Amino acid sequence: MSKFLTFSCNLEKFIDDLQVKLQHNNERIETLLKQENKSYKNFVKPLQMMEEELEHFFTPLSHLNSVNNSEKTQEVYTQSIPIITEYSTKISQNIAIYKAYKTIAENEKTTLNYEQKRVLELNIQHFELSGAHLDEKTKARLQEINIRKSELSNDFSQNILDATNAFECIIEDEADVKGIPASDLESAKFEEEGKTKYKFTLQMPSYIAYMTYGQNREIRQKLYEAYVSRAPQNAAIIDELLALRQEMSELLGFNNYAEYSLATKMAPAPEKALEFLESLLDNSVEQAKKELEQLQESAPHTLESFDTAYYSEILKKAQYEIDEEEYRPYFEQKSVVNGMMDFLEKLFAIKFELQEETLWHEKAYAYHIYENEKLKAKIYFDLEARDSKRGGAWMSNWQAHCSDEAGKEQLASAFIVCNFPPSSDTNPSLLRHDDVVTLFHEMGHGIHHLLSNVNENEVSGVNGVEWDAVEFPSQFLENFAYEPHVLKMFAKHHKTGEVLSDEMIEKLVRAKNFLSAMGMLRQLEFSIFDLQLHTKLYKGDEVQNLLNSIREKTALIPTPDYNKFQNGFSHIFAGGYAAGYYSYKWAEVLSADAFYAVVDEGIFESQTALKYRDIILHGGGAKSMQDLYIELMGREADTAQLLRLNGIGV
Residue 55's closest CA among 424, 460, 480? Predict the structure, then answer.
């Protein structure tokens, strides 16, 4: 029998099967609650595994809706959202479960291990943040809010996907595609009425290609305007979401949603997180202004937002003699994936083994992971862009490492999804170095989940990890995509097999922090906007006015009025980053500090790397990341390493 679940999803029967499963779960909960002497073993563990099994069932649908989106997946997913949300909300507000957890935590505090204590601690906190201790009328309203929030987030995401797929820019004049890389041109080219034409879209590989290399400024502006003005109907969704979040926070006893969000994070309060962001801004803004002056010198006219990628590429070539297109033949997708695995095998003493199986798409594939010659986990890859796939890159977990009620070990599994240039029989998928970094980033999340040794699924892998620490392992790993020893493991020309030269690697490393302060300001703009947006109720024009006020300090190039960035800010309106986008930078402090410790020890000779595996990766969310980090380094993180990593002030 397979150690892992078989990927399948019957869309025709899904809703019926879901309702049957939830009815069975509700009956099981009632039976468990009727027990006289509730304990961790006879109450908490069965509830945990019941939720784990529901995750096993539901994940394939949410995965398909993201990677093979169709009218049918949309229909079934949309129908399932209120059903699953109502069920989850009822459980999270069930006062009997809440009281049982509190009683068990008190009665068994001397016999439970730290993993079990963490499960109870987080569950009790979760119940209180869900309003379990409140009156029935308030709980009913919170349930309504949760269902509506889920529906709105799904609509927000779908609107962006629909708007992205609806736009295309057809170019007929060869002069307008001069300078576009050959591989991107090949993807854009089509024949119509005996004439060669080129189609550019808002899909990221296509959009980035023209914004970076397209010489026609009018076309760049057309693409940029289409991209930043997508899904205007999302403005109304934002207003409703913000109102619901504020109402929910007040019902739960918080002044605002930012306070509610940070209750489960490392940062002690919204004010502290904002201070952290503002200090980074103060340390970065002068260097960013100098970078912009250099960029402006490379342009024959005043720079506008749709010019920066194009002239950045020109300046980058001038300063570092770097042409990204010269690098892409060395970053053939399969070679990069295989090389990354070789690197991980050496760094963490693990092993990958390709599996033969049919998955949801012909371009998807899977590996088993072994540690100490023992089967440890399974990882799925789906890396190429297509129309039916949501944009961006992400890791999503399916199974968590744990022991079930009978003490039998369950192994972990997870998905790595990216949107790299599609390959064909005649055209390989050649990556930009940024794509390589993205792959390493998502793989950092993946191995964090998959290498867990924790036996309680709710705090195993990425489960239970504070939101502002969850990016630490991904950022830690992505930094190695610039290390010469690592690059040489996979940066080989896809035709000749020639390894990327030392000179080209040196240029790439030197260019790593090209315009890094400007990039820092952009991320800080998003983070500060997100946090401030959730400190009180903003609505209508107030949302745009807030963003404009932040841009006065962060946006060194004036932003056009038609730029409605917020309408596409999926991270906070369709993802889990609301009042938490700052966590990318918060976690980067940890990642930069740990990364330099490994590099200073020679990477493959590093004892810190093995300790990182044994403490951070094996440890999952069973302890606070603050405690795990001090266990790893023997001290708190050195925040100065963050600026060093970005080449700011050094």
Answer: 460
DSSP string of 523-578?
Answer: HHHHHHHHHHHTTS---THHHHHHHHHHHHHH-SSPPPTT--GGGG-HHHHTSS-T
Work out the pLDDT band at 2, boundaries 50, 70, 90: low
**Helix, strand, coil percentages for the chain (3-state, nearest 5):** 60, 10, 30
Strands 195-201 and 350-355: unpaired
pLDDT above 60 for 1: no
Strand-pair category, 365-371 with 350-355: antiparallel
Is residue 38 within 8 Å of 104, Cβ to Cβ? yes
Rg, C-alpha atoms of the chain: 25
Contacts of 481 (CB under 8 A, 6+ apart): 433, 436, 437, 439, 440, 487
Residue with tokens 């935590």: 105
pLDDT band at 640 (very low <50, low <70, confident <90, very high): confident
Which amino acid type is present at position 196?
Answer: T
| Residue corresponding to tokens 């609509």 | 155
Across the chain, mean pLDDT equals: 94
- Find out whether 11 and 72 touch, Cβ atoms under 8 Å: yes
Q: pLDDT of 265-322, one tens digit each?
A: 988 899 999 998 999 999 999 999 999 999 999 999 999 999 999 999 999 888 887 7
Task: Just list the catalytic residues.
Answer: 442
Q: How many residues does the chain have?
A: 650
Strands (E), 325-371: 350-355, 365-371
Distance CA 605, CA 598 (A): 9
Residue entry with tokens 């799925």: 380
Cβ neighbours around 520 below 10 Å, total: 25
Contacts of 437 (CB under 8 A, 6+ apart): 478, 481, 482
Of 546 and 320, the structure prediction assigns the larger pLDDT to 546
Q: What is the pLDDT of residues 573-602, one digit of tens each?
A: 998 899 999 988 988 989 999 999 999 999
* Contacts for 532 with CB less than 8 Å, ≥ 6 apart: 274, 546, 550
pLDDT at residue 447 is higher than 50 = yes
**HEC assignment per residue over 53-109:** HHHHHHHHHHHHHHHCCCHHHHHHHHHHHHHHHHHHHHHHCCHHHHHHHHHHHHHCC
Helix axis angle for 14-33 and 71-92, nearest 10°, is 10
Q: What is the residue whose two structure tokens read 């940029």?
A: 224
Which of 132, 128, 112 is CA-nearest to residue 40?
A: 112
Q: Give the integer Cα–Cα distance in Å for 393 and 379.
A: 15
**Model confidence band, residue 81 (pLDDT cutoffs 50, 70, 90):** very high
Question: Helix, strand, or coil here: 143?
Answer: helix
Q: How far apart are CA 578 and CA 393, in angstroms?
A: 18
248-257, 359-368, 584-593: least confident range: 584-593
User: Does residue 388 sit in helix, strand or coil?
Assistant: coil
Q: What are phi and psi of 266, to 5 degrees?
A: -70, -40
